[in-house]
Every structure is written in structure tokens, then in C-alpha cells.
Design goal:
The complex is a heterodimer of chains A (209) and B (142).
Chain A (H helix, E strand, L loop, with lengths): L1 H37 L5 H8 L3 H8 L2 H24 L7 H16 L1 H10 L12 H12 L2 H9 L10 H19 L5 H13 L5
Helix pairs in contact in A: 1-2, 1-4, 1-6, 3-4, 4-5, 4-6, 4-7, 5-6, 5-10, 6-9, 7-9
Chain B lengths: L3 H18 L6 H5 L12 H24 L8 H20 L10 H9 L5 H20 L2
Helix pairs in contact in B: 1-3, 1-6, 3-4, 3-5, 5-6
The chains are: A mainly alpha (209), B mainly alpha (142).
Amino acid sequence: MAMATSFRHGQERLSQEVVEEHQRNRIIAVVAQLVDQRGVEPSGEEIVAAARISRMSIYRLFGSKRGCIDAACLAATELLARPLRQAAASDEPWPARLEVGIDGLLEAAATDPQMAALCLVHSSGLAGAPPAAGPAAVQGALVALLAGGREAGRAAAGVGYREPPASAEVFVAAGLVAMLGHLVREGELEASAGQRGEMMQFATSQFLP
Amino acid sequence: MLAGHELDRLVGALAELRVELAPGPDAVSAAVALPRPRPGGLLDEQEEALVRELGRSLAELAAATASAHPAAVTLPATVMLGSVGGAEWVMRWTLQGEEPERLGELVPDFVYLVTLPYLDREGALAAAARSRELIEADGDGD
């Protein structure tokens, strides 16, 4: 009997957590949509109206409206950075793991272009957006994924390999952010095979002979 | 933040390098056509103007290098967008960082990045080294 009661309470708690997670995700999606439509930070009233929730829900789920915007920026960044981290941690040789990461990045952005735009296009313009969010965070994940490019270049060219500048990984990662940001802004994320090829060509040419 | 005369020195060195690498064609129109968005909120107006000015010079250098090497025209425009856009992002993060005055030191690396798609590695490294010489020579004359 006690076990049955505990099980029921567990189910209720789980159910409550699932509902809150669903609400959080819905509100975050609404924030991304509003920011993408208007290019500026939405007011609390606008979020409440578009998400069809009470103002209290924002405070209960995020602590404040600022917390809500921050959570949306962080979630948008995580959407793009996660496939890059996963690819960087894989056992694939370079540049195959770079290709896996760029594929994952393009797929994530194409799956949710408004979240991609929130991260790459809009977050830097939102007052007080968290430092862990935005293009710089995606660039950081790309730098980690580009590690291995020099080694692959040395292996391919042998002793005659000319090292790129020390900052090449940082520049190439920033370039990939610029290319993806352009695709997101222009709504051109569909033809991902060609886009992957162009991004791969840009990145590998800096390291491989 | 760079002083105005420092910016002029860097832009002047890049213009000189552009003429050395590609004396004939005028690359300004190709560079102007390159989409270069301004992310809001990162920098103040003066800093963003600096990024735009240096970015424009790099775009002109890239376009001139591409036009001087006909094989390079097969490269998609997004390659130039990546190299110039990437350099502009690095400029913004440098200006936001703890040592914004070091931006000038990065210019030879920017030159390498934007010319490599159109030159071989030796050529891009040589262009970067030449830009360093031009910047230093101009600085000695101040």
C-alpha cells in the first residue's frame, strides 16, 4: 500500500516535471519566434499573450522575464553547439569528424531556423544576454572541432608542411559562424549538401595541403 | 580601441598590398556586393565603424586577389563571406576583450585568412608577411 502511494506520488511528480519542461520549451520557442519577427527583445506582455500563459508562469519557470530571455538564448546556443561537441568527442579521424559536426550544425539550424537566428543573429543585440550564449559560444565549439586540422595537414604533407598562423582555428571557426549566420538570415538553409561542401572547403583549405 | 591614425595606417597598408598583389583590376565593386551584417549590441558605433572599415579593406583585398587569379573564380562567394565575415567577428571579439589595442597585430593573420582561398599556402603566408612589413614601415615613418 505504502509502495503504491509512493509510486503514485512519483508519477505525479514526474508528470509535473514533464508538463513544466513542455511549458518551458513552448515559451522558449515563442521568445525565439517573437525576436525573429521583430528583431528586438519582446516584452513580458507579448510573451504571455503569444504563449497563452499567465505572467506567473514566467516567474515560476524562469524566475523573471530576464531569466526567460536568457534561457531562450542559452537553449538556442545549445541547439547549435551540441552537435559540434558530440562530433569533437567522436573517434572519427579529421576531417571526417569535422564533416559530421558541420552536418549536425546545419541540420540543427534547418530544423529550427528561429532558434538558430536567435543564437547567431539576434542574441548579441539583446541587452544583458548571457556570455555563454550567442555566436561566440558556437565559435568556441567549432574551435574544438577544428583541433586536429594541423595534425591531418602534417600527416598529408609530410615534412614540407607549412603551418597556418597560430590563430587559424579561431579565424576559421569565426568564418564558419559568419557563413551559417548568412544562411540563417537569408533563409537559405535547405540545400544543405551544397552548403556543407562550401563550409568544408573553407575550413579544410586552411589546414590541409 | 585603435586611434584614428592607427586605423588609417592599417587601411593604407592593406590598400598598398592590394595594389602589389593585383595591380590591374578594381575590386571595390565586388567587395561592396559582399553581404556584411552588423550585429547589434556588441560594440559602440565608433568601434563598429572601425570593424566595417577594416573589413571593407580586407574584402577589397580578397576580391582583388580572386580577380588576379582566374582559377579562383570557381570558388563560391560564400568562401569570401566566410573569410571576411570571420575576420570581422574576430575583430569584434578582440575589441570586446581585455586587449583591444592588439587588434592591429592580428591584421597579417587576417590577410592570410582572406587570401588563402585564392593563393596557395606559400602565397598567403607571403602576403601576410608583406602586410606586416608594410604596417611596420608605415609605423616607422610616423
